Amino acid sequence: MQIALAPMEGLVDDILRDVLTRVGGVDWCVTEFIRVNDRLLPPTYFRKFAPELAHGSRTRAGTPMRLQLLGSDPACLAENAALACVLGAPVIDLNFGCPAKTVNRSRGGAVLLKEPQLLHAIVREVRRAVPAGIPVTAKMRLGYDSPDGAIDCARALADGGASQIVVHARTKMDGYKPPAHWEWIARVQEAVNIEVYANGEIWSVDDWRRCRAICGAENIMLGRGLISRPDLARQIAAARKGLDLQPMGWSELLPLLQDFWRQSRRKMAPQYAPGRLKQWLALLTRNYPEATALFAQVRGERDCIKLDALLGVERVMNAENGLPVRADQARAEIGTEAALAS
Ligand SMILES: Cc1cc2nc3c(=O)[nH]c(=O)nc-3n(C[C@H](O)[C@H](O)[C@H](O)COP(=O)(O)O)c2cc1C
Fold first, then answer.
1. Given 8, 72, 194, 247, which residue has the most CB atoms within 10 angstroms?
2. pLDDT, mean of residues 18-42
3. 29, 76, 85, 98: which is the annotated catalytic residue?
4. What is the pLDDT of residue 26?
């Protein structure tokens, strides 16, 4: 049984991949989608979305990372996939599930599920372009507005050369509304000879049990469930062995949240870091009353220094000049250099 951490654009970046895979139970993770239009992307672009490329394509915990591409031009996707492999990507994953209007309008993501022949051509060209030892995998929804074409799409991907498929068991039109139609995962698995991963609406160990009973899938991918309950993969892996683990408490989670904040502060411009923190915290409120209380405090706050204090994190110092990050902001607020050094 393999458990994967889902790719989530704007949410599961290298920092969250680092923090979540350290909790345990995750066998592999995926970058956010990297969008390919009509040109070869520069290596810096790949490294920005996948800093793990510089570390053997593994997170700090040693969890392997795959690189996901999104686009509709088979030749261009193939060229970019080949470059990603040269840069160290160990697996190329292709996105056929994104429901975003802007992405679908430019013929990317879930809209391609209307064109199984194109799915086939994309996987075939990417497969041809990357070294034989590098697997090409795909992530699909059940269809655009109906699941009726799901089997054709899955077959097109498998025949094109995909070695695994993750099925997010909803159509594009379903968006993220529950339920996920897990029964379709079993139908897809019956139709293809490659591994199929079940994805969608697994928020708890009980959900996983129900999903497995309905679709029979041993392999799963966890998205929002794992972000809102960071030990979900660990719990499921234990449950599968018949063990009953104590759920992660707030005292174990808070240091992870603090580390996430420190890393976000170092990496992101101060206007963006608070948004990331609030996104994760908002999902944690589903399972942790302490997160609800903290979220109420941070919700309207955009000042990173005040957020440091609310999270109980010492001020984040810049490694090069020893000043707090966003020293200008601190200076304006506190007034003196002496206060800054305190
Ligand atoms: C904010 C957000 C961003 C997402 N970004 C991606 C993405 O970049 N690539 C992808 O294949 N799926 C993406 N997805 C879909 C998830 O990987 C997953 O299929 C979906 O959330 C269903 O799983 P869940 O119910 O466990 O969350 C995204 C979902 C969300 C909510």
1. 72
2. 97
3. 98
4. 98
